[in-house]
Amino acid sequence: MRKLLLLLVAAIIGFAPEVLAQKKVAETRSMYNTVYRRTEIILPQVKGMNCYKADFHTHTIYSDGGLTPRQRVREAWYDGMDVLAITDHLEGNSFAKTMLRILAPYNKDGKPSEWSNAKKSGRVITDHNAVFDEAAEEAQNYPLTLVKGTEIGLEPEKGHFNALFIKDVNAIYDTDEIKRFENAHKQGGIVIHNHPTYRRKTSDKNEWQEKVYKDGHIDGVEVANAFTFYPRMVRRCVEEKLVMVGGTDSHGVTDIYYSGTPFRTHTIIFAKDRSEKSLKKAMLKRQTLVYCGGHIIGSEYWLKEFFNASIECKVVHTNEKKGTRTFQLTNHTSIPYTLRRGKGTYTLNPFESITIGFGKNKEGYYTQPKLRVANMWGMDNKNLVVNIEIDK
Ligand SMILES: [Zn+2]
Ligand SMILES: [Zn+2]
Question: Residue 78 C-alpha to ligand 2 middle, in angstroms?
């Protein structure tokens, strides 16, 4: 009887028109098409090689950064990077200290576990490889090459150094500082001198650094770190055959820090493919440029090759009467170029063309257009001056 009554009530409610209408209304409705978009940085093929965009300097919550390794991976991919290294500090993990305090109630004595600050304890007890493993799991979802690394942080007068392309971060630390570099090289890694003026008045090498460089412990230098460019480091890299690197040294969110500029600071590597082997080989051959705040930094050779590969130049018209020739310059890359001739400035935006007229030279011939690229920087704080290749 009770069952029958319930059925009757259900039937009445069920057939009520307003209830029927209500039932047809969806529980949830998406108010925005959440498709995540990657920023594509379009760069040219240079001498038959691809340009790979790499950030070799980032931090996570496992040292003193604010993001997890997984977030760093996703962030790099959506920022347009092809290569990422997470370089958490080897010797000191300030955020880990906070984590251990939060987890203290899980310990039997209720006290925080030992903090692996090598400066105090003389050893490192953190499993640094776990950071890479977590990032690697996430990196599988993207065509992104994850490079294993760590930042060796010595006292200010000695400096900070990134060990990249290493295999076991835990085996890098040694109480002897020089052995940390040796351990990195033993693993097939390369060592980059980071932000050379950090907590120092000059980037000039002191006695200790002079010896470290001379003994072959250093393979490259950060010519740019975040938005800071170190103009004197370009000459050092060219003269001492060191690779030029640029990185964000991101501790926070790049989306905020680089919101006013199109792209985050990165190293452009000219390589065959984005395998670790090819990237490392290209770096040891110093086939890099550095992007920083809309500027490109590097050796004159690679700046020229990169610029001429970026720009298509055609003759539009020759006015024999006036003795002038008009050229069309087309920018096939995402990099805006600022070109100067005398007092004239020409902005050549990404995927746009401009025309410029040139007269004959002193000998009475039409020549290649010669321009100064005001956002390309070679040795000694000087802009690249380039003869633009025609009809290549
Ligand atoms: Zn540092
Ligand atoms: Zn750093």
Answer: 21
